[in-house]
């Protein structure tokens, strides 16, 4: 049993703390503490050697009051129901505080991508995309890259969706490759925004950023880019 805090319980506690400052009914607050919809499925996928493995997969659509659900899809052995529920909830508030017209979503597969071939990962991803098909769309739910996923996985999801729907739908997912309708700068966008936020925070506080030290927690899609850009400030 892990000693780590349950992320979904942490989210709910944060909402309760914020509710103390709001003139909102208990019913509204309670609604904001739970996802509107949760897909939990088991993917049955054939491996390169002909064997079959099972993978738990999830997609949480937390709240869509402000617009389509928006949030990434991650591949990690520790992906769980409560993790994606919490992360989808935090996406709601991240979009809301900067007035972006999206709701919050998050998904993932409990898998160690380093343990599988590219062909196996493609079959896993396309299997998940098939399960997601009824839930996603540019006006419904728009997935994106997250931990251990990127342009390659997003292209697979887009291609699977378009094949099944018999349509062209570049807006069904973000983080695609440029030749698949992606946006320039997308790969480094999260890390660059971290650098810009740090720079603006120093300006706001009236402090000099020259000579400041930086601690980076995690060195993935966001952390590695942020560390490189902050070093140049």
UniProtKB/TrEMBL annotation:
It holds the Pfam family ELFV_dehydrog. InterPro entries: Aminoacid_DH-like_N_sf (IPR046346), Glu/Leu/Phe/Val/Trp_DH (IPR006095), Glu/Leu/Phe/Val/Trp_DH_C (IPR006096), Glu/Leu/Phe/Val/Trp_DH_dimer (IPR006097), Glu/Leu/Phe/Val_DH_AS (IPR033524), NAD(P)-bd_dom_sf (IPR036291). One of its GO terms (molecular function) is oxidoreductase activity. Its EC number is 1.4.1.-. Residues 181-232 form the Glutamate/phenylalanine/leucine/valine/L-tryptophan dehydrogenase C-terminal domain. Residues 35-162 form the Glutamate/phenylalanine/leucine/valine/L-tryptophan dehydrogenase dimerisation domain. Keywords: Oxidoreductase. It comes from the Archaea. Homohexamer. Belongs to the Glu/Leu/Phe/Val dehydrogenases family. This is Glu/Leu/Phe/Val dehydrogenase.
């Amino acid at each position: 049993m892990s000693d780590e805090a349950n992320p979904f319980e942490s989210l709910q506690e944060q909402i309760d703390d914020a509710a103390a400052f709001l003139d909102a009914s208990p019913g509204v607050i309670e609604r904001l503490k739970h996802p509107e919809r949760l897909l939990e499925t088991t993917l049955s996928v054939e491996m390169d050697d002909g064997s079959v493995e099972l993978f738990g997969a999830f997609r949480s659509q937390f709240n869509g009051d402000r617009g389509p659900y928006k949030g990434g899809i991650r591949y990690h052995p520790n992906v769980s129901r409560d993790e994606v529920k919490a992360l989808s909830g935090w996406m709601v508030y991240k979009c809301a505080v900067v007035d972006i017209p999206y709701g919050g979503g998050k998904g993932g597969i409990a898998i160690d991508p380093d343990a599988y071939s590219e062909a196996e990962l493609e079959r896993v991803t396309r299997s998940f995309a098939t399960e997601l098909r009824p839930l996603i769309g540019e006006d419904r739910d728009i997935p994106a890259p997250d931990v251990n996923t990127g342009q390659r996985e997003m292209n697979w999801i887009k291609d699977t969706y378009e094949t099944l729907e018999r349509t062209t739908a570049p807006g069904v997912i973000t983080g695609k490759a440029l030749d698949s309708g992606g946006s320039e700068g997308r790969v480094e966008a999260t890390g660059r925004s971290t650098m810009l936020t740090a720079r603006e925070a120093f300006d706001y506080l009236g402090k000099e950023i020259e000579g400041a030290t930086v601690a980076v927690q995690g060195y993935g899609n966001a952390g590695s880019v942020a560390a490189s850009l902050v070093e140049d400030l």
